[in-house]
Recover the amino acids of this structure.
């Protein structure tokens, strides 16, 4: 073990006997009593020394035997210690790619706060490289989202969409201006490769993806027409429900951005549950949706660039949270923000007992409402 105080946490002496690690209430921890000699010892915990060397340093400082071990146990118990050598083979492989690791150090620092066990952040960052995410939709939201996931270390990011890049698709985090006129899928592959912190992992002939790649970890539905995310067609997701593939809806419709729901097949509400709940509340809903889907659309859908970028960023954060092993607040819930106030609000979507997805007997979707006060519970 090469212990180090988590570098993401700033520290300061609150008084002569107490040290505070972290600034914000979500992360701040106060450790005390701490004498000046122990404070100097804390300064040596930077990941460059193993336990034996740290004990030698402590003896040179005339500290009692066992004080190093006791201090590290205290810091680890408070979630303040990381291990510069932890994480196994995947983490070692990441450390051997110094260029990629340098790109991802801010992400690693953040992960170390979310996962307090020593080496927890490194394990999850290394695991991202073996994951495969499919983004369905290549407009302002979808292309930016795909780029963010690739830049965050997800090893294989695919974007599915037809047609060619238009001037309105260009965005600072997505397609560059020179991509206008290219096929969207071709431009997306170039974008994803350009922002990735390193080359994708080598494909294995026996991998579950069927093409030498990993199986799908998540599908993100980010259509250019936000109606297909706001009122998704249950028929389009039936295969994902059957195969148990998690999927997340996101997009911009008119002046509203949305992230969610994240659907865990058989456990949380799906697009079918959403449609049934909406029809129960509004008998004319299904009739209007049919007209919106079949009616003539305007030449350019509304999609504010700032809103689209915010939606892509939030959707990327929810996606990465899920890939890292946690359930984000969009699980069984939808987050929405509308222009001009842009106040994010959550709406829980309860599983419907008549939906074929089988989630009607579960309550997994209720967890997400704890993250914020819901303005509308879609429970009928």
């Amino acid at each position: 073990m090469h212990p180090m105080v988590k570098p993401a946490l700033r520290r300061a002496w609150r008084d002569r006997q107490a040290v505070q690690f972290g600034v914000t209430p979500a992360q701040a921890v106060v450790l005390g009593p701490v004498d000046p000699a122990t404070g100097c010892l804390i300064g040596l915990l930077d990941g460059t020394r193993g336990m034996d060397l740290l004990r030698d340093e402590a003896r040179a400082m005339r500290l009692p035997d066992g004080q190093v071990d006791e201090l590290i146990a205290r810091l680890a118990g408070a979630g303040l210690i990381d291990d510069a050598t932890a994480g196994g083979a995947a983490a070692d492989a990441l450390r051997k790619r110094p260029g990629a690791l340098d790109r991802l150090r801010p992400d690693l620092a953040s992960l170390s706060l979310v996962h307090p066990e020593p080496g927890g952040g490194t394990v999850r960052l290394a695991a991202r490289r073996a994951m495969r995410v499919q983004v369905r939709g290549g407009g302002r939201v979808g292309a930016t989202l795909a780029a963010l996931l690739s830049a965050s270390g997800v090893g294989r990011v695919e974007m599915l969409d037809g047609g060619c890049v238009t001037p309105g698709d260009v965005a600072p985090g997505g397609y560059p201006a020179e991509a206008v006129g290219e096929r969207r899928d071709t431009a997306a592959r170039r974008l994803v490769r350009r922002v990735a912190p390193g080359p994708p992992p080598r494909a294995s002939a026996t991998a579950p993806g069927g093409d030498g790649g990993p199986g799908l970890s998540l599908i993100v539905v980010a259509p250019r027409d936000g109606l297909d995310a706001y009122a998704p067609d249950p028929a389009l997701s039936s295969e994902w429900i059957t195969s148990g593939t998690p999927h997340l809806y996101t997009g911009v419709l008119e002046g509203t951005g949305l992230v969610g729901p994240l659907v865990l097949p058989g456990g949380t509400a799906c697009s079918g549950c959403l449609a049934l709940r909406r029809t129960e509340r509004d008998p004319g809903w299904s009739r209007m949706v049919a007209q919106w889907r079949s009616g003539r659309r305007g030449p350019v859908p509304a999609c504010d660039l700032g809103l689209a970028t915010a939606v892509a960023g939030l959707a990327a954060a929810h996606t990465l949270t899920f890939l890292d092993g946690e359930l984000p607040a969009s699980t069984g819930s939808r987050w929405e923000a509308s222009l001009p106030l842009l106040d994010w609000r959550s709406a829980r979507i309860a599983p419907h007992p008549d939906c074929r997805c089988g989630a009607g007997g579960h309550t997994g979707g209720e967890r997400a409402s704890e993250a914020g006060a819901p303005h509308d519970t879609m429970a009928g």
Summary: The chain has a mean pLDDT of 89. The chain has three domains: 3-83, 88-127, 129-201+210-371. Residues 33 and 55 are 21 Å apart (CA to CA).
